[in-house]
Design a protein that fits this description.
The structure holds 2 protein chains of 2 kinds. Chain A has 15 helices and 2 strands. Chain A is mainly alpha-helical. Chain A has a two-stranded antiparallel sheet with strand order 1-2. In chain A, helix 2 packs antiparallel against helix 15 and helix 10 packs antiparallel against helix 11. The N terminus of chain A is likely disordered. By secondary structure, chain B is an alpha+beta fold. Chain B has 2 domains: 170 residues, D-Maltodextrin-Binding Protein, domain 2 (3-Layer(aba) Sandwich); 194 residues, Periplasmic binding protein-like II (D-Maltodextrin-Binding Protein, domain 2). Classes of the chains: A mainly alpha, B alpha+beta. At the A-B interface, loops of A face helix 4 and helix 16 of B. Chain B: It comes from Devosia nanyangense.
């Protein structure tokens, strides 16, 4: 613990030093910073904040008149709502747990590889699938999952899966979707975690080694606690993305001729409400529920992970 | 300022001579593209702006989705839309969230009644609500019975005429020629339309705002048993008609009940059955020994006109051409318009690809589609795909799954606003 406190203090001192050295440089950087974020902020307002406000308006009205919680109650009573919550929940549990465990593990392993070219090419390999957008990676996985065309058909047959319909059955789907999401998303996070590991002072690792800590002990007591913020950051972003599950089941639905139902996830249900039932109010209510849940859990992880603590 | 003046000038010009500057926005699928291009060539005075989409195939809902967006935005409606589904009139004929119904009423003065009377009797039933016609059928898709005469002759079997014969043929094949088969139910349309609709099973009925589905009715149970029996002896496969597994075994297909459009999509398709000329026969539909001589229907697209259009005259010209022009109508299938259908049937018969009386078989099927099937604002295919396809794949039977299937259809009906019985 004492070791940790020392490192926490060190960058702080460095920061104070810089501040006292030249205040005007920081002000200039601040102005440039504003320029950099201005375009993002503009887009965020136009495509994020304003639509959210419109959704809040829609969710509490019906044909322009205030409707209280009617829209929410109608959506909650829908026979498709609870299964969709269950599907998304199960997917998130499978995916987030595997993401946290495997990404941290893989990052630690890659970081501990001493051979420079091997470590670099490993990171590059991990990252490649991340270059594919969600829908195209699903297309690729469709071929992998269909035993009649799959290059790993023997594995599928070994698991007792003899058709695409069998491979994407409802009870297996959270795992299938988690594998797809992990395959596309994990590489990028491994690279981020690698950066986080690089940030840990060599002296600290050195000191741990002198104290007799092996690689596992070092990882558990030094590296992982110091990666806490990055892990929290990954969980927040992945959670927000995961609750919005839409493209993967939608493409799977069309490819599996409807076996993956059109109302599999909450976002799909919101889509059906808006465009199948012409009920934009109900659709907005579902979206708002998603927003509140995501926001609540993000706040939890932000504080739990100490994301906004300055060091 | 200058730009405004030009726009004002242009719109004055457009108002002055509508025939010269008429522009139509048409949404249709890729299969319809040649037909739209044929119209453009025949009518250069009308500019067609074709936007290709999926034609809402597989009940994807593209049509309703895009109209929903236009309704919400208050602009962006097309002039004409093609949909492969024939139940869109259920929503397109109704006002939505205070916006007028999208579909233009086509009888009652919009098109000549004499022109509308030229359709095959019953062709406009799916798009007629309370006596108002909301769309024009592109093609008819009655279910008939296709069999491979060469194979049946080789095995020494007579072609079946009833569903009972069909099942008995399955037993003989399974015993003497394992591997040969009589159909597939891997897609979401074969089960509901080819087997249940043709088998007169009252599982998808609409009466006003009431939806009815009876999976315990006598005919429903008969179809359940037929499917379970033939899946069990492997003469019905669980593969998709358009999947790799089906195509790989297509030379073992002995017979199959299916829509008129199987002609082009399956038999004369090098990526499908790829039949040899003269091997296959289009026969009249199967029926129950103790039942009426009726059949089912698998799709048959529909053209809709927008009630928002500013070019009603051009829309009329377009619609009449696209459904009744003898070279264009039907877009490869059996045209719904009678005079075009006769020409198409003659051409098919004279090509001699199909053995037997092709024209008589298709005409008989087209005139006997069972009217007990409903066209509500949802499709039986989604419930089939969600409940039955995975259920059968995991070894369950129709008898096990029928109640769940019924419940899912009733739930869907309730969600879109029907009273459920």
């Amino acid at each position: 613990m004492t070791i940790l406190d020392q490192t926490a203090a060190r960058p702080l001192r460095g920061g104070q030093l810089a501040k006292s050295r030249n205040g005007s440089v920081e002000r200039a950087q601040g102005r440039i910073g504003l320029v950099f974020v201005s375009l993002y902020t503009l887009l965020l307002v136009v495509f994020g904040v304003l639509p959210s406000l419109y959704a809040i308006y829609l969710a509490f009205t019906k044909r322009g008149a205030f409707a209280g919680f009617d829209n929410f109650i109608r959506v909650f009573k829908d026979y498709r709502f609870l299964p969709a919550v269950e599907h998304v929940g199960l997917f998130l549990v499978v995916w987030l747990v595997s993401l946290v465990v495997l990404v941290v593990l893989l990052a630690l392993i890659v970081h501990s590889i001493g051979v420079r070219w091997l470590s670099t090419s490993m990171r590059f390999l991990y990252y490649i699938p991340g270059a594919l957008a969600g829908a195209s990676s699903v297309m690729l996985w469709l071929f992998v999952l269909d035993p009649t065309v799959s290059p790993v058909a023997f594995v599928l047959h070994g698991l007792g899966l003899n058709s695409l319909v069998g491979a994407v059955q409802a009870d297996r789907l959270p795992f299938v979707l988690a594998v797809i999401a992990f395959w596309t998303g994990a590489g990028g996070w491994i690279v981020v975690m690698y950066g986080a590991l690089n940030n840990i002072s060599k002296d600290l690792i050195e000191a741990a080694r002198v104290d007799g800590a092996g690689p596992i002990r070092t990882a558990w007591s030094i590296q992982i606690p110091l990666m806490r913020k990055w892990i929290a950051y990954m969980v927040i972003l992945s959670f927000a993305g995961g609750t919005q599950l839409f493209v993967e089941p939608r493409v799977l639905s069309q490819a599996s001729r409807g076996v993956v139902s059109q109302d599999y996830s909450l976002n799909q249900l919101a889509f059906l409400y808006a465009f199948k039932q012409s009920d934009f109010n109900g659709s907005a209510a579902i979206s708002l529920v998603l927003l509140i849940v995501s926001l609540g859990l993000s706040i939890f992880f932000v504080f739990k992970g100490g994301l906004f603590e300055r060091v | 300022m200058k730009l405004t003046r030009i726009i004002v000038g242009l719109s004055a010009l457009m108002a002055a001579s509508p025939a010269l500057s008429a522009e139509l926005t048409v949404w249709a699928d890729a299969t319809r593209q040649p037909a739209v291009e044929a119209f453009q060539a025949a009518h250069p005075e009308i500019t067609v702006n074709l936007i290709v989409d999926d034609g809402s195939s597989g009940a994807s809902g593209t049509f309703q989705t895009k109209i929903g967006l236009a309704d919400q935005a208050g602009e962006g409606w097309p002039d004409v839309v093609f949909s492969t589904q024939n139940n869109d009139a259920a929503w397109a004929s109704k006002e939505t969230n205070g916006v007028q119904a999208f579909a233009q009423v086509l009888n009652e003065g919009f098109l000549d009644q004499a022109f509308l009377d030229g359709f095959t009797p019953g062709a406009l039933d799916p798009v007629t609500v309370d006596g108002k016609v909301y769309g024009l059928r592109n093609d008819l898709a009655p279910v008939l019975f296709w069999y491979n005469k060469a194979l049946l002759d080789q095995f020494g079997y007579a072609p079946p005429a009833t569903w009972e014969d069909y099942q008995a043929l399955g037993d003989k094949l399974a015993a003497d020629h394992p591997g040969y088969f009589l159909g597939a139910i891997g897609d979401s349309f074969e089960g509901p339309y080819v087997y249940y609709w043709s088998g007169e099973a009252p599982i998808f009925q609409v009466d006003g705002d009431t939806f009815k589905s009876d999976t315990a009715a006598a005919n429903t149970v008969k179809v359940n048993n037929l499917i379970d029996h033939m899946v069990a002896n492997k003469t019905l496969t669980l593969d998709s008609l358009f999947g790799a597994a089906f195509v790989a075994t297509a030379d073992h297909l002995v017979a199959i009940p299916g829509a008129a459009w199987y002609a082009g999509a399956l038999f004369q398709n090098p990526g499908g059955v790829n039949a040899k000329a003269g091997d296959w026969v289009a026969a009249p539909p199967l029926y129950w020994t103790d039942g009426a001589k009726v059949t089912g229907n698998v799709g048959g697209g529909v053209w809709y006109a927008s009630s928002h259009t500013a070019n009603a005259d051009a829309v009329k010209v377009f619609l009449q051409f696209i459904v009744s022009d003898e070279k264009t109508a039907g877009t490869g299938g059996l045209p719904a318009y009678k005079s075009a259908a006769d020409k198409w049937l003659d051409a098919q018969a004279s090509s001699g690809f199909y053995a037997g009386d092709f024209k008589a078989a298709i005409s008989a099927a087209a005139a006997s589609v069972w009217s007990g099937w409903g066209y509500p604002n949802f499709s039986p295919e989604t419930a089939w795909a969600k409940v039955i396809t995975p259920g059968l794949a995991s070894g369950k039977t129709m008898a096990d799954l029928a109640a769940d299937w019924q419940q899912e259809m009733k739930n869907e009906a309730q969600v879109v606003g029907y009273t459920v019985e």
